[in-house]
Design a protein that fits this description.
- It is a single chain.
- By secondary structure, the protein is mostly helical.
- Helices cover 65% and strands 0% of the residues.
- The chain contains five helices and no strands.
- Helix 1 runs antiparallel to helix 3 and helix 4 packs antiparallel against helix 5.
- The longest helix is centred in the N-terminal third of the chain and has 28 residues.
- The mean pLDDT is 89.
Length: 144
């Protein structure tokens, strides 16, 4: 994780350097204007916000690294691939409920785009889909 922290700090420094170069380039490009009118503010502010975001991520990953008290398996040279492979849970590969849930979301978005009469239909399909997905292990062939 220390490598990730260093990469984010390097990325923040790079974007800071690019903000300075971009601003200076704009000032040099328009010598007939005063410097505060020659700056293209949208790009400069966007690059400065990018510096700020990279610094926030670097600070956060540094704090997480300090709070863990150890190295991640990715940072250890003797680690195996399975060392960083967590158990993510149990998923149903036969389940059709995610497709019904996606259909309800598409009905809701279509209701926003076309007509509001589709919104309650999409909401009703969403309720049926989420209840069906949550309770699929409690009824039918796979009941426990």
């Amino acid at each position: 994780m220390k490598t990730n922290v260093n990469l984010w700090w390097i990325l923040g420094a790079f974007f800071g350097l690019m903000a300075v170069v971009y601003t200076g380039w704009n000032i040099i490009e328009y010598p007939d204007k005063p410097w505060y009118h020659a700056i293209e503010w949208v790009g400069t502010v966007a690059l400065l916000f990018t510096v700020f975001m990279a610094a926030m991520i670097a600070f956060y990953t540094n704090r997480v690294h300090a709070a863990q008290g150890g190295e991640l398996p990715e940072d250890t040279l003797t680690a195996d691939i399975d060392d960083a492979d967590p158990e993510l849970g149990e998923f149903s590969p036969w389940s059709w409920w995610p497709l019904v849930l996606a259909f309800s979301a598409s009905l809701g978005i279509l209701g926003l785009a076309v007509g509001s009469f589709l919104l309650p239909i999409g909401l009703a399909v969403f309720v049926v889909a989420i209840i069906g997905w949550v309770y699929e292990y409690y009824r039918g062939y796979f009941a426990r």
